[in-house]
């Protein structure tokens, strides 16, 4: 890009409320005649074969998603990022952007290269995808990389495993140019690159603020929706970007996740303020640092705000519950250049009758429905649509079609133990007899639960999640409504009948007490006076426990005014008759 174009780009972004990270939006995509010439030349260069994950990374670099990086890091930047979370020039960057080819044939090519050389990068079609200009070649320590980046060298961690499984021994640093974009299949028609979103947000729609939300392997659920709609109260627009590559096979397939998002956004969101675009990004950076990376990616798409949930980019039990929040303590708002909005775990409280977090709800787990991505996937796998308070039916119906594998095996097991699913979604079931009910004398353990318990818990929620607050509301309105026409007449009549019936019981027992002997001739056949009195006392307490039946004539005392209405309307004179 020549200096004149760079100046025009700088002037363009100066008028926007956001700036690309590092001050420039990288564009390394060749077009037209230049692309044709470089594509032909690339076929004459030494070639390194790359996999889909590397192709995705090349596209991210070339289209500006990873600005200000123009290629793969040299050793100086690599070590600065690994230990300081910043490029050597001080710009925040949380993860090393490295290219270390693996495979015997690639190893031979790497050994033949020197600084200043160029090498073609080709995909499975053996056609060039990009050209890399070599500015550095360096060996690195895989254990050191894993320990610094992920805080562990455990191969069970997917990021650690990826280092040892997918990366060679020598890293190549230098800028790249992209020769060929890969077609995104069903996602191509809704694909948006940074150059597109900056134009849409700030030139066409004239936004002054945009919230970004990157989400992983789950269909859109009510926790997502809670975050989105809270943000939409304060920002002009929302960019939702589900990740659509490199997900594990047992997750909901990408196409169905995107369709589940579209169905909910079309039905429940303000369409003119929300943009949905797939994000092809690798999972090699899984962990808290990936959360910072995602914030910077949102910034490069033009977002002024990054919306971060509790377990953003979480990996099993390797990190603290809120590690994706505390990681931002290492960076100042000014150097990040995007406002990070952190959200606590979202759940549905049946007592509050709304979605909430620990910061806004005081009720205990007897009343809570948790929103667990893993739990949602397992319910879908079992063929059970989660309660509407957890996932909108528009989302879960489509997502269920895309979940693999489905059902139970011969031992009635799935991928995740059913007890773990119940604990993650319906914690009340282990502690209480029912949703909002009394505590069990002995808590249930996840290990003893079966698919029948999942069905029972789900049925309980479907029947009673709405009912808890509704019942409470009806009790309050029955006592509170002075206009008795608002109330159900049959409740009043039932209460009157209850009182009349119990009054009959009391009157008969009073007669019984009068006639009861001081001492019964046969305690198995007759009652003495003391026992009859106890029976009467119980009946009178039951009568006192019956709630009153309220009628309009009995509530006239509630309606009184110190002055007639015409005086409140402003007249000091007596009302004309």
Helix content: 40-55%
How many β-strands, per DSSP? 14
Question: Which stretches are poorly predicted, pLDDT < 50 over at least 5 residues?
Answer: none
Average pLDDT figure: 91
Oligomer: single chain
CATH evolutionary superfamily of the largest domain: Sulfate adenylyltransferase
Rg of Cα set = 33 Å
User: How many helices in DSSP terms?
Assistant: 21
CA distance, first residue to last residue: 89 Å
CATH class of the largest domain: Alpha Beta
Number of domains: 4
Protein name: Sulfate adenylyltransferase
GO molecular function: sulfate adenylyltransferase (ATP) activity
EC number: 2.7.7.4
Organism: Siminovitchia acidinfaciens
Describe this structure in a few short sentences.
This protein is an alpha/beta fold. Helices cover 41% and strands 11% of the residues.
Outline the structure in words.
The protein is α/β, with parallel strands linked by helices and 577 residues long. The protein has 4 domains: 22-178, Roll (Sulfate adenylyltransferase), CATH 3.10.400; 187-343, HUPs (Rossmann fold, 3-Layer(aba) Sandwich), CATH 3.40.50.620; 348-479, no CATH class; 488-558. Helices cover 41% and strands 11% of the residues. It contains 21 helices and 14 strands. The strands form 3 sheets. Strands 1, 2, 3, 4, 5 and 6 form a 6-stranded mixed β-sheet that branches. The longest helix has 30 residues, at 451-480. The chain is elongated, with a radius of gyration of 33 Å. It starts with a helix and ends in a 9-residue tail after the last helix. 36% of the residues are buried. The mean pLDDT is 91.
